[in-house]
Amino acid sequence: MRRNGGGWPTMDLLRSEPMQLAQLIIPIESARPTISYLGDLGLFQFKDLNADKSPFQRTYAAQMKRCGEMARKLRFLREQMIKAGLSTSTRPSAGTDVDVEKLEVKLGELEAEIIEMNANNEQLQRTYAELAEYKLVLQKAGEFFHSTKSIAAIQQRELKAQSLGEGSIDSPLLLEQEMVTDPSKQVKLGFVSGLLQRDKSTAFERILFRATRGNVFLKQAVVEEPIRDPSSGEKVEKNVFVIFYSGERAKNKIVKICEAFAANRYPFADDTSKQFQMITEVSGRLSELKTTIDVGLLHQASLLQDIAHQFEHWNLLVKKEKSIYHTLNMLSIDVTKKCLVAEGWCPVSATTQIQNVLQRATLDCNSQVGAIFHVLHTEESPPTYFCTNKFTTAFQEIVDAYGVAKYQEANPGVYTIITFPFLFAVMFGDWGHGICLLMATLYFIFREKSLSNQKLGDITGMIFGGRYVILMMALFSIYTGLIYNEFFSVPFDIFGPSAYACRDLSCRDASTQGLIKVHSTYPFGVDPVWHGTRSELPFLNSLKMKMSILLGVAQMNLGIVLSYFNARFFANDLNIRYQFVPQIIFLNSLFGYLSLLIIVKWCTGSQADLYHVMIYMFLSPMEDLGENQLFVGQKFLQVMLLLLALAAVPWMLFPKPFILKKQHEERHRGQSYAILHSVDDPLEMDLHPNSHGHEEFEFSEVFVHQLIHTIEFVLGAVSNTASYLRLWALSLAHSELSSVFYDKVLLLAWGFNNTLVLIIGIIVFISATVGVLLVMETLSAFLHALRLHWVEFQNKFYEGDGYKFQPFSFTSLSEEDE
Description:
It is built from 22 helices and 13 strands. By secondary structure, the protein is an alpha+beta fold. Strands 1, 2, 9, 10 and 11 form a five-stranded antiparallel beta sheet that branches. The protein has a four-stranded antiparallel beta sheet with strand order 4-7-3-8, sandwiched between helices. Strands 5-6 form a two-stranded antiparallel sheet. The two termini are 33 Å apart. 27% of the residues are buried.
């Protein structure tokens, strides 16, 4: 970010910003505000000077532990808000700043209060569930006892009537005997009542029968609706049971079986009046508990609502505090224990801003000693920093995904802004589809302020982040679509009438005699008369294939030219003489010559076979060209270019390793000297990679590396040029798919003269266009354009072995998860 005469920073993406290694000496009393202000500025990348120490051995380990505890409490509060169905405010509240000490106390109080509320609510819910089950047992078992007694009374009356009606001599005596039987000799049955999960009822009954040898009577009643289980809190389907038994041993067995099956037992009285009294008491307690639970939940919801309004503010404050102490732990403490020493990278243009921040922190703390900013001289490679905006960031990310540029290496991101969407559009050319893409991306651009504050999904987030890339892709697609003259595969004569017409007005002989030129050449793009003719496909094939070669050779030449500017910037004359020159000669002797033949053929209208020319340029360079000759002196030029291409291969391979070996030997003999770098100039870096006299030199490794590089370039010149033919292939595929959908779906449905068929045809056409052409084809063309930039373009000059400048900044904290 260099500054012009007016003092404003200028955007320069070609070279990364000049960086410097700086040392900060900060008094302990002003250390925290200094780091905080540097975090607000976001232009200083700290180095960890305590890498050999564990986190527990560092100076501010106790403060980090406190911040971690506050972060844990905030996570607990977030979980409680999510359970309550509340969402935190996406923007931090604009209230007054809360002191961290007070916030720590407040978070502790809130956590304890909510934990107590949860415990009380859990106990109340458990009690409520038990009482609800108890009420069900009283109702169901009461109904069972009532119906059983009614049936027994009826049976007894029937038995008496039957006995009296028989009139036997012995009957009165027997009845009197039964009535005077000793009550103490009658057997009384006990019973156990409760609830059991319905899916366990069969096994429960079987175990009871086996354990008591059938000496129990089990009666079950189904509960229609699922009820909440007191122990688990989940709704389950249950049955009410009543077990009748005789004897204490049977009771003990029944109780143990109930415990084993997690059956909840509840007391029950066989007296009807007591049953009614117990139901009344349970119903009253249930209503009281319901009121208490509702009041508690309302209070808890109100408390969580108040927390939600300030949660993001508290969360950001804790994150800032944690990041400040994490950074302070990277600083080394001076032997006097009175100041901290920091080292890190910063842009040269930010020196004044950093010094102002240090002075501001000193004034805020009323410190008698100010912080010291000192520039260090180092041989270490600085980080790479490009000052981007919301438009250029996405294009720079495309380049960085391949590899971060070496410090002040030529940045392909500058050219990617134009070449990437243009190559995409060459494959996607249809101005109807381009307008659809444009409308989709304008939605994201117009709503970027609101969408930037929302949490988007993975795919939506990627589309939103690359909205300006898609905008350029859409604009270039409209441009190339106008050149191809395709609007959903339909041609239009926008720029004037067609240059061709039929020989007669009826056009009967159009398919046999062809068309004649009646107007001047169509001014822009493909003449609409080509579409739908028998010669459309051969014509467009030839056009797009040759155009792909021209674009590919032009972009590869751009990459080689950028390698020259890299070598010149780093003062590497060897790369200019023995890499750039032979590479530019080799590429243009073969494929640059092919591009020249294509242009000459277009301009002259020659019928020469370029395949024949290029093949026999290698097989029979001295053979006469005959009818394939395009211009005078072509044969001589071909021989010269072939010789230059052959000479360029050893030119790339042999000189550079031997010259490097000679330079290394001269340095060790003391015959070559280098000027010492001035310590006073912080910008002066070691730009001469061969100036280190004490490093080892392995000639075999250097020669093998150069051999690999030469073979890769020679073979890559052929394969990379062929790779650009994907522009032709995908463009043709896109055009043909669009034509198929239009002809075989939309026009076919239109021809039935049926409204329902037409509506179905339109729906199928829109679905196919959106799903295949606007989604799948867009992704396909995007990936192919990405490959052409990463492999065919960037490998000509781009090393990409740097590391990104990652300053300490608070702006990224809101995007990070805990």
